[in-house]
Amino acid sequence: MRFDSKDLALAVVLAALYAALVIVQGLSAAATIQLRIADCLIPLCALFGWPAILGVVAGAFVGNMSTSLPLANGVYDVAFGPLANLLAGSLIYLLRKRRLIGCVLGSVTVGCIVGSYVWMIFGAPSDVFSLRIPVTWPVWVASIASITISSLVAIAIIGYALLSILSRKSIAEPLRSKGLRVVPAQKKQSHESFQFC
Fold first, then answer.
1. Between the CA of residue 107 and those of 20, 102, 104, 146, 154, what are the distances in Å?
2. How far apart, in Å, do the first and last CA atoms of the chain sit?
3. Which one of 23, 31, 47, 180 has the lowest number of neighbouring Cβ atoms within 10 Å?
4. What is the pLDDT of residues 153-178, one digit of tens each?
5. CB 163 within 8 A of CB 99
6. Long-range CB contact pairs, 7-11, < 8 A, 24+
């Protein structure tokens, strides 16, 4: 795997964008919902490969340091949030030929990892998008269900739509012509296409 200055620049831009979205959402009224808007960047790992994976991991670390660390038990989010992004981004990248399946599995990965601890930071969720969670559920089950559903919205719906738009030939080709390596989804690859191995 080659990793040059353009790859580093892409990783830094995605990390900054992810962290900025997390911080802005944490400061706004949108912080009351568990839908992390920044997670819509995770599916871009299928298009940009390892620079995108590193970007969403670093972005989660910086964003979580700013928003979760000051809170009680926030250290869990700083440690395990980037790990969730690493696993979800890698899974989406490995399943780039089946992008929607990759996005759904990435959402479940984030939901299970983040949901297993986020209730210790923000308390038990009482609803998911105005749907009441049964009070008989254990708090960690309710938390995993809540985060998984919101991750499906952020990653498998919004993120998948973003990935589909950026994967169009009219957008991907200009990115290639500027020197960015875009990982093709097709099985057969031409000599002009770039990919990370």
1. 21, 8, 5, 12, 8
2. 5
3. 31
4. 999 999 999 999 999 989 988 888 88
5. yes
6. 7/50, 7/51, 7/181, 8/51, 10/48, 10/51, 10/52, 10/55, 10/180, 11/51, 11/52, 11/54, 11/55, 11/58
pLDDT, position 190: 45
Distance CA 155, CA 148 (A): 10
What's the pLDDT band for 140 if we cut at 50, 70, 90? Answer: confident
The amino acid at residue 32 is: T
User: Mean pLDDT, to the nearest integer, of 92-103?
Assistant: 96
Helix (H, G, I), strand (E, B) or coil at 127: strand
